[in-house]
Specification:
The protein has one domain. The protein contains 14 helices and no strands. Helix 1 runs parallel beside helix 12 and helix 3 runs antiparallel to helix 5. The two termini are about 15 Å apart.
């Protein structure tokens, strides 16, 4: 088997597993959402800029700053500003499952803005996913978690919109928007909360959160260079069931049966939609 391909699969798999721990980091501390965004943003920005400097692309990416890059920064920052509070206001399972709809939201946005017609398989999977999200949402309304779920969907929408930006302008850098989007939220968080009131040991936990997730983003970028995009999407889907499992094992969050049913429909749609691309 091709060594480059194997390395790519390993990198994307590690990235997906790391991403699945977002809810554990966020719900595992008593700090409010904006304090998490503050300390996480400092660590993520520093790590990503260091990575860019080591690769020798830091100055080149800043010189190439243009409108698509700024748009990607705004979308990523908006998504992060919703993603962290979503975990505070909803369950790990709900947020992870709603985030899993991103491929289908991306397909819809690509059709609207780029006139890229989705395949029949993607359309069927999108309707199935919509049905699954409806089931999850019904359970959220019953349990009072709907505000967190709305924030999770906004995060998925912003992430999908950023994918469309990269599709429309493929030369848009990936690392720079990730670093700057985390950085621009730091002063906003500073004014919205007392980040210095966070107890020291939680600061270290949240800082590790930022560094770990910056690492995961780098691993995803490096892995995506080595394997087909269909396989990147399918392997990334591991994040959802692992997140639900971690929420159950570490936080003792037991999803209600209605969430489990909706989640199974969503995951089946994600896997089925990508399987043909992988087998090819």
């Amino acid at each position: 088997m091709d060594r480059t391909y194997v390395i790519g699969v390993i990198l994307v798999t590690i990235s997906a597993v790391v991403w699945s721990s977002a809810g554990i980091f966020t719900r595992g501390v008593s700090a409010d959402a904006w304090s998490v965004i503050f300390w996480r943003g400092i660590a993520a920005t520093g790590f990503t800029l260091a990575y860019m400097a080591l690769r020798g692309v830091l100055l080149a990416e800043f010189r190439g700053l243009n409108k698509p890059t700024v748009l990607a920064i705004v979308l990523m920052a908006s998504g992060t500003a919703a993603f962290i509070p979503a975990f505070k206001l909803s369950s790990v399972a709900n947020v992870a499952l709603i985030r899993a709809t991103a491929p289908f939201v991306t397909a819809g946005l690509s059709w609207l803005f780029l006139r890229e017609a989705p395949s029949r398989r993607v359309l069927i999977a999108s309707f199935a996913t919509l049905f699954g999200v409806g089931i999850v949402a019904k359970g959220s309304v019953q349990s009072g978690l709907w505000i967190g779920d709305l924030l999770a969907f906004w995060m998925a929408l912003m992430m999908s919109a950023s994918f469309v930006v990269y599709r429309r302008w493929p030369k848009t850098p990936a690392a720079l928007p990730s670093a700057v989007s985390a950085a621009v939220l730091v002063p906003i968080a500073w004014f919205l909360t007392d980040a210095m009131a966070v107890v020291p040991h939680e600061r270290w936990i949240i800082t590790a959160f930022g560094a770990v997730f910056a690492t995961a983003s780098v691993l995803m970028m490096e892995g995506a260079r080595r394997i087909p995009s269909a396989e990147v999407a399918l392997i990334s889907a591991l994040e959802t069931p692992v997140a639900v499992l971690l929420g159950f094992v570490i936080l003792a969050e037991t999803p209600p049966m209605i969430t489990v049913i909706g989640g199974m429909i969503i995951m089946a749609a994600v896997i089925w939609s990508q399987w043909r691309g992988v087998t090819r």
